[in-house]
Design brief:
This protein is of the alpha+beta class. It is 50% helix and 22% strand. The protein has a 6-stranded antiparallel sheet with strand order 1-2-6-5-4-3. It is rod-shaped and about 145 Å long.
């Protein structure tokens, strides 16, 4: 699975429910400078996710991948494992932006093996029914793929959040250790201050004794 989307550091709430898929329809899409009849479906996922999901789906069907203009092609593909007929499947995924969401639009058409689809007339409906059925079958697979992508992304978000929490706890331990050392130093400083205060008192008392002795001595000398 190709999951290489950028990770956003936020918590995404994913509600898993039974999806209501849009049904495929019929449209015309430009292919090699001409409009061709194609099947179309719009899905509420990013174009990147849908591209990867469709690629994975088609690779499981076998066939050789190719690229024609803006279309991906899987040649000599069986639409079903029990299907004897092989076909070429052409598809492209376009990005469609709404106000606050990105959708993906898939265009798909089926060609005969080796057919030059660009030479088709604009009203050629070859296997258009099968093309729409193929898109309808893809939709639940793409939904599951999208959930797996979201699961991977959310697991990464959770891991980052857990790591951040552990780092914060480590920081707390270090800060508490520093605080304990600081508190011990403060307590020691207070004790040292008290000892120094006591010593200062003794030294002042000794000074006073000496000063008194000096005053007494000078008083006796002045009387002589």
């Amino acid at each position: 699975m190709k999951i290489s989307l950028p990770l956003m550091v936020l918590v995404t709430v994913i509600t898993v429910s039974t999806p209501a898929f849009s049904q495929s329809g019929e449209t015309k899409v430009e292919f090699q400078k001409g409009d061709k009849v194609a099947a179309i479906i719009e899905l509420p996922y990013t174009a990147r996710v849908v591209e990867d999901a469709v690629q994975e789906w088609m690779e499981k069907k076998g066939g050789k991948s190719d690229r024609v203009k803006s279309f991906d092609v899987y040649r000599n593909t069986r639409l079903d494992k029990d299907e004897p007929e092989i076909v070429d499947v052409y598809y492209k995924v376009d990005r469609k932006m709404t106000k606050d969401h990105e959708n993906a639009v898939i265009y798909l058409l089926i060609g005969r093996p080796g057919e030059n689809v660009g030479a088709r007339t604009d009203d050629d409906h070859f296997k258009i029914v099968e093309s729409k059925e193929l898109l309808n079958k893809m939709a639940p697979y793409i939904d599951t793929y999208n959930l797996e992508v979201q699961l991977k992304l959310q697991e990464e978000v959770v891991k980052k959040s857990e790591k951040k929490l552990l780092n914060l706890k480590d920081d707390q331990y270090d800060l508490e250790k520093k605080l304990k050392n600081l508190q011990d130093k403060i307590a020691q400083n207070k004790n040292d201050q008290q000892l120094q205060t006591d010593d200062l008192t003794r030294q002042k008392e000794a000074l006073n004794v000496i000063q008194n002795k000096k005053d007494t001595s000078q008083g006796k000398l002045s009387k002589q």
